[in-house]
Every structure is written in structure tokens, then in C-alpha cells.
Design brief:
By secondary structure, this protein is of the alpha+beta class. It contains four helices and three strands; from the N terminus they run βααββαα.
Length: 98
């Protein structure tokens, strides 16, 4: 039996050990980040970031991708340091004239 491949492998120092054995789907990881960390990344954005190597650490089990809450917590901590790009306000017809 193949063991899961850990991308960006690293030891987790999360004090919330009860979550360490939980594996979340990409959709669940998106919900976790939004609800627990106030980071709004859709499942599609996480998938895209994964393809560019900018996603949280994840497990690849056959074709399935899974995230550990401890790795999402670490990602959220580093995102707080780097910050997400601010969304630009949409231009209206009046602001375009100025």
C-alpha cells in the first residue's frame, strides 16, 4: 500500500492536536479558512494556487487532495504576514470620467 505523499512536507507545531488527524477536501479547506481564519479563498482559488506552488501544504492521496487543519493554520499565519492583495474597487462610469 502506498503512503500518502505530503507536498511541502514539514512538521506541524499546532497545539490543537485533535485536528491533526483530520483531512479536509479542497472545499472544506476553503470553508475552514473562511470560518476560522477570515481568509476568503474559494476552492477554485486554492486549486489554482496549488498549481503555482502557492497553496497551503497538502496531501495527495492517489487523485485526491487533502489538507490538514494544522497546515491551514500555518498558511493563515504566513498569509497574515504577507497579506493578500487588496481588491480594487470596481470602476463606475462616473469615476472613469475623472
Amino acid at each position: 500500500m502506498r503512503t500518502p505523499e505530503l507536498r511541502d512536507a514539514g512538521a506541524s507545531n499546532n497545539p490543537n492536536r485533535e485536528f491533526d488527524d483530520q483531512y479536509l477536501t479542497t472545499e472544506q479547506a476553503s470553508d475552514y479558512l473562511r470560518e476560522k481564519k477570515n481568509i476568503h479563498l474559494t476552492a477554485g482559488t486554492l486549486t489554482l494556487r496549488r498549481s503555482f506552488g502557492k497553496a497551503p501544504k497538502f496531501l495527495k492521496i492517489s487523485q485526491a487532495v487533502r489538507y490538514r487543519p494544522a497546515d491551514l493554520d500555518e498558511f493563515a499565519r504566513t498569509m497574515g504576514l504577507k497579506g493578500l492583495p487588496e481588491r480594487q474597487p470596481e470602476r463606475t462610469a462616473q469615476s472613469a470620467k475623472k
